[in-house]
Amino acid sequence: MNILGHLGTIYVVSEWIIRLVMLIVVPFRRSPEAAKGWLLFVFFLPWPALVLYHIIGRPNYPRWRRERFAKLPKAFEGVTERIKTLTAYQEPELPENLKQAATLIQNLGRFPNVDGNSVELLSSYDGSIARLVADIENATGHVHLLFYIFADDRTGWSVIDALARAVERGVACRVLIDALGSRTWAPRVLDALRQRGVAVHLVLPFGLLRWKTARADLRNHRKIAVIDGRIGYVGSQNIVDADFKPGIVNQEMVVRVTGPVVLELQAVFVADWFLETQEVLETPDLFPSPVRTGHVVAQVLPSGPDYPEAGIGQLIEALVHGARRRVVITTPYFIPNEGLLHALGTAVLRGVEVHLVLSKPADQILVSLAQRSYYAELLAAGIRIHLYRDKLLHAKHISVDRRVSLIGSSNVDMRSFVLNSEVSLILFDREANTELRAEQERYFAASEELSLDTWRARPLTRKIIENIARLVSPLL
């Protein structure tokens, strides 16, 4: 046998070794859906699958990052005690069917439910930025911003200029921006902020030649602003123009909150600041004695690879299982796991009205194709699907039975459930839920509702492409 023959034999044998080893390795600590997706990839393309698995196959941060996170409880012992001292746990008033979901939230998160908050839902894109800029202009102590995308466009410069003026007044301004989400603008934004005296850091920087690099697919997807420890912002909107992607205009949802729960948003920020800088921020002015500004009971839930027990996916399933009347899920990206699919279908059988509000315009083609592959079975189960026209509906929120609302940065897909660092604000309040429901009704009016017969009549080629995309959806 010539040398080429020997090499061919070695290559074939190596492929089978990879298949057999990965058959053992892949299912460990991985959902059945994700395991099937990886194993299918491994079966057809063993070597490319092995390389990709080494790069993004395990939802774990590098050791140095995990070691820093392990230091958090001790580093922030004073911060944790101060939050407990300054805030009082408040059991939300809920019917029996939702009490278990509230208990789950309490056990998943590291923060208590607290009363005395006031919330304002901001659905105007430019309006929410204007409100944030106004609050920065009135800041007296500090401004903390954590965003997945921070651009140096018109929107970004309005925030940069406000931060510069705040620094001139003696306000301490700190900014965290995700290295991948802001990669197009990061060098210019970092330079502009640093020249103006703002302390700014990239979150999870990555690169082949970096000593302490992060994985490219594990990102900090949070959007948080905290001003003077008394005003907080959380939601889906980044600091970038609404039309930053050609041909697409984003529609968002942001919550402006005041009251004790702002201290929980502050704690998420200072924890992320420590993870990037190893600097502990615990001065008293960062956690001032809260002032009751309303009657809303609320809780912050951080989630992501740093918080393996704080699963936003588990919470969404529990809320759906607990629903008795109505569930509305609004998200731009919907790639559910089997547990959520079962929960949604079971809810309809129990008589619950279930609505999905999704976006008709798409900015991620492969994800959109995979998402569409679920529509037929969802519609057949009695779930109503509304496709929002004209704009990319990037808002991410859920309402359950007029009693519980969840608004934040998390999509309903495996990336947000497992890979991304996310943050959600849970509101146990009828009035807030009613306000959110009014916004959802506006979505319905601006959407096309799918029918099962029409959807099934789409061309066969589309069905095939969508279902191929679905096969790799656990990897998305």
TrEMBL record:
Amino-acid biosynthesis: is it a keyword of this entry? no
Which EC class is this protein assigned? transferase
Q: Where are the transmembrane segments?
A: 6-26, 38-56
Has the keyword Metal-binding been applied to this entry? no
CDD domains membership: PLDc_EcCLS_like_1, PLDc_EcCLS_like_2
What function does the entry list?
A: Could be a virulence factor.
Quote the protein name from its UniProt record: Cardiolipin synthase
Organism of origin: Microvirga puerhi
